[in-house]
Amino acid sequence: MDLGHGSCGDTSKKDSWKTLLLLAYQSLGVVYGDLSISPLYVYKSTFADDIQHSDTNEEIFGVLSFVFWTLTLVPLFKYIFVVLRADDNGEGGTFALYSLLCRHAKVSLLPNRQVADESLSTYKLENPPEKNSTRVKMYLEKHKALHTALLILVLLGTCMVIGDGLLTPAISVFSAVSGLELSMSSDHHQYAVVPITCFILVCLFTLQHYGTHRVGFLFAPVVLAWLLCISALGLYNIIHWNPHVYQALSPYYMFKFMKKTKKGGWMSLGGILLCITGSEAMFADLGHFSYAAFQIAFTFLVYPALILAYMGQAAYLSQHHDNANHIGFYISVPGKLRIPVLIIAILASVVGSQAIISGTFSIINQSQSLGCFPRVKVVHTSDKIHGQIYIPEINWMLMILCIAVTIGFRDTKHMGNASGLAVMTVMLVTTCLTSLVIIICWHKPPIVALCFLLFFGSIELLYFSASLTKFTEGAWLPILLALFLMTIMFVWHYATIKKYEFDLHNKVSLEWLLALGPSLGIARVPGIGIVFTNLTSGIPANFSRFVTNLPAFHRVLVFVCIKSVPVPFVPPAERYLVGRVGPPGHRSYRCIVRYGYRDVHQDVDSFESELVARLADFINYDWHRAHGSNSFPECDASQSNDSSG
User: Fold this and answer.
1) What distances in angstroms separate CA 195 from CA 18, 177, 350, 396, 406, one per listed residue?
2) Which of 295, 373, 388, 641 has the fewest CB atoms inside 10 Å of its own CB, making it the most exposed?
3) Where in the cell is it found (predicted)?
4) What are residue 91's DSSP bridge partners?
């Protein structure tokens, strides 16, 4: 018995490890595509204008030191060890942090909040808070202006993620295709790179409506091949050109770099920060994988591969000063390998772009769920995989803007400046929100959150300030885009709240509904009438106007309220709250349909079928309960017998 039990335990452990390693492998294609292709453009953007590669190698070694420590402190320490733990039922991203804060403190500006929402299985709270965290929470709840400021902060992060979804495909594909410059003359090159980039981008956006599930199995092998490729090239360049390049990993070289380059070195940080583009994707895509899978994939494969790639490029450049005006990834690739590497780079850039485009669709759907974005058509691209969506209007807008950026900027420097500012803004927003989560949700002493905020915030502010100096050289684009999107999102959210307040103020009493009948010339016609409203109680004013204009309504009347709850997902069994409005004979009901911010709303046909089925279950339950029968099914979370209206 013991032997059998032991072998069972070993088998389950092996299966769990296999599953974990499979998730880690799959995460390469979905999450790390953007981060892994950054070696294509980091050095090229850094040495664009502000600093020059000299014979002393102080610049290239200083940049390598900055890249190493930035990759170590931000993606590894901040995200892998801290931020990824701030998950919301396994989900990550800006809205996950906001959702956590809204559940632990009354800071949400969303209307129609109910006590019943707290009984959801996904509405879990942490342990009781400490006194210090309670003070911070009370201060935050007390000042309404802070609620608005918090929402604006979240919207800023969201807008910059959308901006990144516009800029990442442009800079990734353009940087990959620019490898052609070493294989053709400059006259041919300048007329080839932009059209080829635009063609690839058009193909990429045109294929979006097919979804990624058909080609998704190719994503991980492509990124894995790319990581192995840059690792091998890095090792080759280190061994062949400068085996002592590892010494540049010392922070002392950062000090020497800043001492020599001064203002130019500080401004060049706007290029260095591109080495961490895509780090936020680890947190945003947390729900698709697991914390342990991300740890394994990044710590044991992505991180070492990137460090070797950057060290290899630095080793090559330290021995080649004649190419000071043409610093880039491809000059460190041996001539015979450039075409194969170019092909892998283009494929990897497409995979990285695909991930950020899918993420943009997802975050717009979340914004829409929280009443912060105008209603747009959301198409499910897979019947089997939840959350794979396509938004036609957003897709074509992104494609047009992406091509416009490629044609307008025509170089890596301006695209990098724009992308860098967007990325660093998102990271600053994540740092601020995580600091609040540490206090309010994790109930840690405020000093811990302050240390986290000051340490990582100061690093990110340094890079952010360097990005702002590039305002006229491309950084204006994400700022302009963010202002435009934030205006739309904030106005839409404000109007949504005002509409709810108007409906709440003008709602009609239950007595008015019960008084409607033949004596007033009102007829009940066969069928089920559905009245949509934002109210969770009372009779909406639009129904009274309907009856005034058309003195008839259906024999079965259902007031349906579709509302968002600050949780990522609402289990299907808990989605519907059904109750009577008035006495049983009136046959009027209220159905509250709850969605989380990552839930994708059902199409009309399936929604109506589900609604009617839940209504039938409730009527059956209500009849058995009224007649004192013991044979009716047990009441679950989807049923309510509140008849107060």
Assistant:
1) 44, 10, 16, 18, 9
2) 641
3) Cell membrane; Membrane
4) 88
* Strands, sheet with 588-595, edge to edge from the N-terminal-most edge strand: 523-533, 552-564, 588-595, 576-580
- Would the CA dihedral through 456, 459, 461, 467 be positive or negative? negative
Got the DSSP string for 316-380? Answer: HHHT--TTGGG-SSGGGS-GGGHHHHHHHHHHHHHHHHHHHHHHHHHHHHHHHHTT-S-----EE
Q: What is the 3-state secondary structure (H, E, C) of 147-199?
A: HHHHHHHHHHHHHHHHHHHHHHHHHHHHHHHHHHHHCCCHHHHHHHHHHHHHH
Top-confidence residue, 306 or 292: 306
**CA dihedral of 296, 300, 306, 311, whole degrees rounded to 10:** 160
Eight-state DSSP code of residue 218: G
Q: Which tokens is 627 given?
A: 């007649």
- The pTM (predicted TM-score) of the whole model is 0.86
Nearest Cα to 227, choosing from 304, 336, 342, 279?
304
Q: How far apart are CA 172 and CA 176, in angstroms?
A: 6
Q: Is the dihedral of CA 534, 539, 542, 546 positive or negative?
A: positive
- For residue range 576-612, list pLDDT tens digits in order: 999 998 888 888 999 999 988 888 777 777 888 889 9
Rounded Cα gap, residues 109 and 494, in angstroms: 9
* CB-CB contact of 381 with 193 (8 Å): no
Q: What is the mean pLDDT of residues 112-139?
A: 72
**First-to-last C-alpha distance (Å) of the chain:** 60
Q: What is the mean pLDDT of residues 220-246?
A: 95
Average of per-residue pLDDT values in the chain = 86
Give the contacts of 61 (CB within 8 A, at least 6 positions apart). 245, 247, 248, 253, 256, 257, 314, 318
Quickly count: other Cβ atoms within 10 Å of residue 517's Cβ: 11
Task: Provide the strand spans (E) within 394-542.
Answer: 523-533
Q: What is the mean pLDDT of residues 93-120?
A: 82
CB neighbour burial string for 311-327, b if at least 16 within 10 angstroms, e if fewer = bbbbbbbbeeeeeeeeb
| Interval 400-445: pLDDT, tens | 999 999 999 988 889 999 999 999 999 999 999 999 999 998 888 9
Distance CA 532, CA 540 (A): 9
* CA-angle at 73, arms to 69 and 76, nearest 5°: 115
pLDDT digits (tens, 9 = 90+) for 501-550: 888 898 888 888 888 877 778 888 999 999 999 888 888 988 888 888 88
As a whole number of angstroms, the distance between CA 484 and CA 506 comes to: 33
Cβ pair 131, 125 in contact under 8 A: no
